[in-house]
Amino acid sequence: MDGTDIRGGHVVVVGGGIAGLAAAHRLLDGGARVTLLEASERLGGKLLPGEIAGVPVDLGAESMLARRPEGVDLARAVGLGDSLQPPATASASLWTRGALRPMPKGHLMGVPGDPALLAASGVVSPAGLERIEQDRELPRTPVREDVAVGEYVAARLGREVVDRLVEPLLGGVYAGDSYRISMRAAVPQLFDAAREHRSLIEGVRAVQQRAAGHRQDGPVFMGIAGGIGRLPLAVAESVRAAGADIRLGCAVRDVRRTASGWAVSAGDLVVEADAVVVAAPADAACRLLAGVSPGAADRLASVEYASMALVTLAFRRPDLPGLPDGSGFLVPPADGRTIKASTFSSRKWAWVADADPGLFVLRTSVGRFGDDKDLERDDADLIRLSLDDLHDAVGLSAAPVAGRVTRWTGGLPQYPVGHLDRVADIRGRLDELPGLRVCGAAYDGVGIPACIASARRAADDILGDLGRDRRRVDRDPTLARGTGGQGREWTA
């Protein structure tokens, strides 16, 4: 910002997930007026608070990376600082090769820095361990401008490391295929190590040594007592108190330029504004941008999404004797199971355990990119298949007292090779249209802090555009032109 007073500049934010809400929060702090339009009847997107058997739980994302400041900072800014909680335990396992095995230490997204630690875990077979040793002698593997994580790691260390370690860890973030996912976008530290070192193992060790010299105190991940789903609702309350007009059930059908700025149409509602932030999934953003930036829309049309389902189950604690320690386990796709992970929520989060000490809550996840046939099953089948896998993994034979399935169709954008170039192209095209920006999980990362950072970048760009325009607006305070006032006003 150059110090220009932009107070009164009006911005429409399309989308009420955490990215859209964070953008609204930043814009209001910068002096803009904000109207936020959300197509559905609720706010929060993939952050969804809920309950099972009277216990509050997250039915979407359950934690955020605390080593990035954006999520924690936003939670504190909207009054949730005292509710931030680290996991009570974070010792996950891998269910692979017929047994529950400890997660190897000293790895970077599954890539070992010390093969001896990997050998002690039993995750990789003796033949797989022998293949890893070839990394020390192999000639440099070309990286080029980008490469798939699985492709590069398999070339250096063998497919077993990818299939047993990298796949379940990356799958937990993207529900994707590591043989397609961009290393440069998804694991930039690994990408840098691959470019700087001939041996991948030596490169990972170098990354870990540098990290040890800059070690951050505090937990790696953070949750919120009562559920991370409280975060978007608290942000919404904050921005509404600051004057934002939040409307639900407003599916935006059109964004167009006008002589004085922009017009956003949702049903019979037409909102005129100085700028627009599109914080919607790629398919919706593609549709909205088609008329003003066909090139950006074309690139957005290529973004693919993975679907998944979360199965949340509650059991009586006395019915679960001998449940193994830890926060849960991951499942490599190579093992052919239905579930890809299970989280022992009552172990991981103290607030879940404290809500009802007599119950034990856990959840499983089902579905990966390109493998969503199980998602066609009904809820009862998904619960049964989850119970079958839990029986085989940890010996669980009890019947749950409650179960619910939450489906996230098209929930996670995929970051294939070339993703960062695609994003740069989209933004480059929008740079030609001052007052129009995009943000969200489809661009800079799927985690909560990354989405908030993406929103702040878009908001700061808009504030800069408004400042450079040196315009003050004096429009009708209803912010709407046309017939009717479609959309339900949001209330806490």
Topology:
Blueprint: E1 10-14, H1 18-29, E2 33-37, E3 49-52, E4 55-58, E5 64-65, H2 69-77, E6 84-85, E7 92-96, E8 99-102, E9 107-108, E10 111-112, H3 115-121, H4 126-133, H5 149-157, H6 159-174, H7 183-186, H8 188-196, H9 200-213, E11 221-224, H10 230-241, E12 245-248, E13 254-257, E14 262-266, E15 269-273, E16 275-278, H11 282-289, H12 294-300, E17 305-316, E18 328-330, E19 339-343, H13 345-348, H14 350-355, E20 359-366, H15 379-394, E21 402-413, H16 419-430, E22 436-438, H17 448-469, E23 480-482, E24 488-489
Parallel strand pairs: 1-2, 1-16, 2-12, 7-18, 16-22
Antiparallel strand pairs: 3-4, 5-11, 6-11, 7-8, 9-10, 12-24, 13-14, 14-15, 15-23, 17-20, 17-21, 18-19, 19-20
Helix pairs in contact: 1-10, 1-17, 2-17, 5-6, 8-9, 11-12, 12-16
Question: What features would you highlight for this structure?
Answer:
7-stranded mixed sheet; disordered N terminus; 17 helices; 492 residues; alpha+beta; 6-stranded mixed sheet; 24 strands
Structure write-up:
The chain has 492 residues and is α+β, with helices and mostly antiparallel strands. It is 36% helix and 22% strand. The strands form six sheets. A seven-stranded mixed β-sheet has the order 8-7-18-19-20-17-21. α1 packs parallel to α17 (448-469) and α12 (294-300) runs antiparallel to α16. It is globular. The model is unreliable at 1-7 and 470-485 (pLDDT under 50).
